[in-house]
Amino acid sequence: MTSSYSSLDDSNDSNKRTSCVKLLAIVACLTILGVLLAIIVLERPPPPKNHEILPGDDGWSNFSIDQCSMALVESIPEHMKYKDNVTFGIPLEQVWNNLISVATNEVDVVSFYWTLTGEDISVNSSSDMPGRNILKELEELPSRNVTVRVITSVPTVRTNSTDLEILKQKGVHVRKVDFGRLANGVLHSKFWIVDRKHVFIGSANMDWRALTQVKELGVVIYNCSSLAKDLRKIFQSYWVMGQPNSSLPQPWPAKYNTDINKQHPLLVKENNISSQLYVAASPPSFCPPSRTQDLEAILSIIYGAQHYVDVSVMEYFPTTRFDKPRSRYWPVIEDAIKTAAFERKVHIRMLISCGRDSDPDMLPFLQSLASLDSPQQHISIQIKLYIVPVANQSDIPFSRVNHNKYMVTDKVAYIGTSNWSGDYFLTTAGVGLVVSQHASQPEMKNTTLYSQLKAVFNRDWHSEFAVLLDDLGHHPDCSLSR
């Protein structure tokens, strides 16, 4: 009996010693884990000082090690003269040439249509030389072992263009997306991706007139692989849909998902400037749930503005434009504009293009919106028409027009590819870049993309080419005045 108890006591002592060892091991492991977690938390870079949070951001963005360099890009039509000491973007021709020259592996280009020579539209003009040069440089890329892929739309603009056939003969891969069949719209996006790290997004199609005869605006971003790879997912969605007999997947496969969106913008830093940015897209049928839709981005920017909203677009209609058999009323963006002006007393300025080919049906909508301007009630909605002088270029069709599509508020800059009417956000493919920036040093403030865009809007708003609706009268270069 004694021995039995003795044996039992020895076993208990052994178990106790084993338990102590296990406990000490667990405590040691927890201590080490705690130290590691502390190091991780302490080493995690904090949000920049005065970090500006976009609507829906939780304060922590997707951090990038890319040294993204952003610059505004413009094309000013020939024979247009501004006053001295005004802001201009980098010339579009220079940017396209540079993107081609730096390419070492691959170039992806999306454009609604291609017309890089005057013969494409039966016009003989020396102003098509920049377009011809771009076409020649693109032709030569495959001989440099650079893979070139091009996507365009079906339906597209009717031209005599042979650009794509020439490019295919030189080894360029071309696909046409039948957006009419897939989404009852067109592929209206315009962007470049070079070597999966350089990006151009803007209003310019692959058209010689975009370089010399049409006022364009965009953004070029260098050494930004995180954003380029994200934009490439949109390109890939077009590329797959450009195959014969393609059909829209429901839902989109996971490889098209993104972790860069309105809720989680990409945060990059360059020269003491912190930028948050993301790419939005349309139409909804081409967007996985994780992709911020273009309309959602625009509305959130307007609703987030506290002081002012400045808009420059070619066309503005609170309707659909291409619905058959008739268009529908679509006041989604207009309601956001009115709400901002009425409820938050946000100052609204809209610069709408008017050329010889502009739709006169736009005027009543603009007049209706402008009529709400009421200084007595502190409601400020001002609308001007931007008119590019035709001068001696009257023989060039669908030119001499302001093709810009952008917005700048007191918080955010937006550069897109879509006009502002219902179809562009419901059935038409487009992309938009949303940028919020903060300069840690006051002297750097005027170097940001945001400040450049703001300066360009003010330049155009106060120029001789911008006319208030009430002052329009008869203008030979503006169809809305006839």
Automatic annotation (TrEMBL):
Transmembrane segments: 21-42
UniProt keyword annotations, A-Z: Membrane, Transmembrane, Transmembrane helix
Residue ranges annotated for the PLD phosphodiesterase domain, each copy included: 183-210, 398-424
GO terms for MF: catalytic activity
Keyword Transmembrane attributed: yes
rRNA processing as UniProt keyword: no
Matching Pfam families: PLDc (PF00614), PLDc_3 (PF13918)
Sections of the chain in a coiled coil: none
Family membership noted in the UniProt record: Belongs to the phospholipase D family.
Name of this chain's protein: PLD phosphodiesterase domain-containing protein
Organism: Oreochromis aureus
The gene coding this protein: PLD4
